[in-house]
Structures are given as structure tokens and as C-alpha cells.
């Protein structure tokens, strides 16, 4: 067996690195087994892909060991209250990152940053939050990715100090949708679509508790488009969560997200079927939106809708409307910080080559017809 893609070798190395061997509840092991099996049998990883995949699994495992140890040694963090977190959801490529980074510019809001999500322990402190040595380490990793995928900066606004999708918090349970982001692994996708996410979101919450205990403020905003697949588990964990659902025409979303994934996968695999990748993305995200619509039909409270076109045309006005709906204060300090962020952030945009993917835009809209009908005011 390839030692690089071995569950036991990943576990053994994580234990050696951390000096810890308590993984907490047993929910994590099945996902790791499924992922590693899929990586060996389906992913078509090249040597760089195998090493990158192993590193990502190892990072999830070490973070889990360290977080659980920290919680055991600091039981008082369980008294920390996570109140009315604002969670950005929806299809990817709908302005979630732009909105997230804008909200994170507010000094009164706590956000999960790229550098801390990848290395959670020790939890950062307010005194060193802007100078933590992990910032440089995370940026070096992003710089390496850009060397391998030169088109990445034109497609996605990412930096060590930018906001992270909260997938790393779910990745510690090996139940994060985007863990297959470097290769096609359909068996994991199907397993994940049917797994129990309660324990994964419970650890997600405990991690926020330990982060805010060391480094306030305590008003959280998070983003994770794939939360749409499991809003019931999210609501169970965060009963007063506010969901900000961003919207865009799926016929623009699916080609964009497929192209982004394809560009990120390409350096790590020996073979990439782009048309098949596109069909897979249509099916997966149609399922996620279907689940989110069904949940919302039964639980209509606590949703705020945002059109990507409105966010692009009037970002501060859009944020002000979100704050008003969420009953958050939009202060002068908030506005000044957000204006500075906008001034410092270049606009991005890319147009994927649809011929590589054999897309039918009419078919995409047909797959998302219920969504397009329900949210026509936000996507036209």
C-alpha cells in the first residue's frame, strides 16, 4: 500500500506531531477512511497530488487532536456563548467571498481568517492577531499554490488574512464537502451527502468558543456555501443563526465554479475530464439547493437574501440592509473600515471557456428551475 495514502500513517504522524492521541468522539474515522480509499482508487492523483492530499488530511487530524486537547484543558470555554452568528450561504461564486471580506472589515465582528483556520492552536490572542507568525506561514502556502495555479488570483480573492470558509472546522471531522477539491472522488461525495453532520458541527461550535475566549469580539460572521446541504444540522447547533443567502443565476455560477475547481485540480492529477466535472457540479449543487429550499420552507425565519448584482453595484448599501435585517448596528466605524477595504481590494472577474465543459446553459437553468422561480427577484 502507498504509505502516502495510508490512514494509519496519517494518524500515526498526527499523533507524533502533537503528542496527543485522543481524537474525541469516533465520528471522524469513517470519513478519513472513505477519503483515503477514494484518493487511492478514484482520484488519479499524481505525485504532487498525493503529497498535497496527505498534507491536507494530516492538517485536519493535527488540528482535531490539538483542539480536543485544548478543550479538555480549558473546560471553561464551554461556557462561552455563540449568539446569533451571521452565516453566509448559497451557491459558490455568488459573491460570498466579497461579502464575507466586507463584513470582516468591521472591527466589531469576529471572523475566521485563513491563517488561523489552518492552525487553530494555540488560539490567537487580540494582542498578536495582526502579527502572529502563522500569517506568514499561511501566505507562503498560498504563494506556492499561485505558482502552481497562476490563474488563481484572477478567479478568487484569497490571502492569509482574508476570511476562510469554515470548511476546516468541519474538516477536523473529515466531513467537509470541499475536501475533494483537488480531485474527483465520487464515492466520498455520495457518502458525505448521506452522513450525519451533528458531531461535526458540534466540534465546529466548540472551536468558535475557544477562539472567541482568547480573542474577542464575540459577534461572529462565517461563510460556507456548502452549509446549504445540512442547514438542519447547522440550525440544531446554532438555533439563533442568521443565514445570509447570496444569489446569482446558476447558469453563471456553475461554469465559474467548475472552472475554478478544474484549474485547482489540474496540477495534482494525471487526468481530468472537464465535461464530467461540470456535470458533477451541476448535480451536487442542485441537490444542495434543493435541500436548502426544503429546509427554508419548513423554517422560514432567520433568512436574509442578497443579490450578487446588488452587492456589486452598491456594496455598502447592501451591507447596511443586511445589518438592519440582522439587527446589527452599522456604525460610522464599520462604514469607514469597509470603505477602506473596498479601496484596497481590486475587482476580479473571469470568463470560463465553456467549450471545455460542454455546458448547456439552458440545461443548468432547468436543473435549478425551482430555485430560479423562487428567487427570480434576486437572480435576474
Description:
By secondary structure, the chain is mainly α. It has one domain: P-loop containing nucleotide triphosphate hydrolases (Rossmann fold, 3-Layer(aba) Sandwich), CATH 3.40.50.300. The protein has 19 helices and five strands. The protein has helices spanning 7-18, 27-41, 47-73, 96-104, 114-118, 133-148, 152-155, 167-171, 186-193, 198-214, 231-237, 250-265, 274-298, 308-313, 315-326, 332-344, 361-367, 369-374, 376-379, and strands at residues 86-90, 110-111, 220-223, 242-247, 303-307. It has a five-stranded parallel β-sheet with strand order 2-3-1-4-5. α10 crosses α11 (231-237). It is globular and about 50 Å long. The protein starts with 6 loop residues before the first helix and ends with a helix.
Nutshell version of this structure?
The chain has helices at 7-18, 27-41, 47-73, 96-104, 114-118, 133-148, 152-155, 167-171, 186-193, 198-214, 231-237, 250-265, 274-298, 308-313, 315-326, 332-344, 361-367, 369-374, 376-379; strands at 86-90, 110-111, 220-223, 242-247, 303-307.
Amino acid at each position: 500500500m502507498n504509505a502516502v495514502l495510508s490512514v494509519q500513517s496519517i494518524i500515526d504522524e498526527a499523533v507524533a506531531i502533537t503528542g496527543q492521541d485522543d481524537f474525541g468522539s469516533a465520528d471522524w474515522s469513517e470519513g478519513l477512511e472513505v477519503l483515503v480509499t477514494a484518493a487511492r482508487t478514484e482520484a488519479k492523483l499524481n505525485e504532487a497530488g498525493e503529497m498535497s492530499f496527505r498534507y491536507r488530511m494530516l492538517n485536519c487530524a493535527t488540528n482535531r487532536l490539538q483542539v480536543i486537547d485544548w478543550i479538555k484543558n480549558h473546560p471553561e470555554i464551554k461556557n462561552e456563548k455563540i449568539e446569533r452568528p451571521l452565516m453566509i450561504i448559497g451557491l459558490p461564486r455568488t459573491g460570498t467571498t466579497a461579502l464575507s471580506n466586507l463584513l470582516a472589515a468591521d472591527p466589531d465582528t469576529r471572523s475566521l481568517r485563513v491563517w488561523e483556520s489552518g492552525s487553530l492552536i494555540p488560539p490567537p490572542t487580540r494582542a498578536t492577531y495582526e502579527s502572529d507568525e502563522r500569517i506568514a506561514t499561511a501566505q507562503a502556502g498560498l504563494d506556492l499554490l499561485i505558482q502552481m495555479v497562476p490563474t488563481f488570483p484572477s478567479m478568487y480573492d484569497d490571502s492569509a488574512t482574508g476570511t476562510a470558509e469554515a470548511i476546516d472546522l468541519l474538516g477536523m471531522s473529515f466531513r467537509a464537502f470541499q475536501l475533494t477539491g483537488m480531485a474527483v472522488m465520487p464515492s466520498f461525495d455520495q457518502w458525505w451527502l448521506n452522513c450525519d453532520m451533528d458531531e461535526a458541527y458540534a466540534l465546529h461550535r466548540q472551536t468558535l468558543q475557544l477562539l472567541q475566549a482568547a480573542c474577542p469580539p464575540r459577534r461572529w460572521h462565517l461563510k460556507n456555501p456548502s452549509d446549504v446541504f445540512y442547514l438542519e444540522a447547522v440550525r440544531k447547533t446554532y438555533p439563533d443563526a442568521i443565514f445570509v443567502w447570496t444569489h446569482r443565476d446558476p447558469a453563471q455560477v456553475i461554469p465559474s465554479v467548475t472552472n475554478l475547481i478544474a484549474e485547482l485540480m489540474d496540477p495534482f492529477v494525471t487526468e481530468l475530464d472537464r465535461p464530467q466535472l461540470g456535470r458533477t457540479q451541476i448535480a451536487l449543487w442542485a441537490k444542495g439547493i434543493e435541500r436548502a429550499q426544503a429546509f427554508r420552507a419548513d423554517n422560514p425565519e432567520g433568512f436574509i437574501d442578497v443579490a450578487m448584482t446588488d452587492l456589486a453595484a452598491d456594496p455598502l448599501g447592501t451591507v447596511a440592509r443586511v445589518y438592519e435585517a440582522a439587527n446589527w448596528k452599522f456604525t460610522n466605524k464599520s462604514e469607514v473600515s469597509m470603505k477602506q477595504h473596498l479601496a484596497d481590494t481590486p475587482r476580479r472577474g473571469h470568463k470560463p471557456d465553456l467549450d471545455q465543459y460542454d455546458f448547456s446553459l439552458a440545461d443548468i437553468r432547468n436543473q435549478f428551475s425551482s430555485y430560479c422561480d423562487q428567487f427570480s427577484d434576486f437572480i435576474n
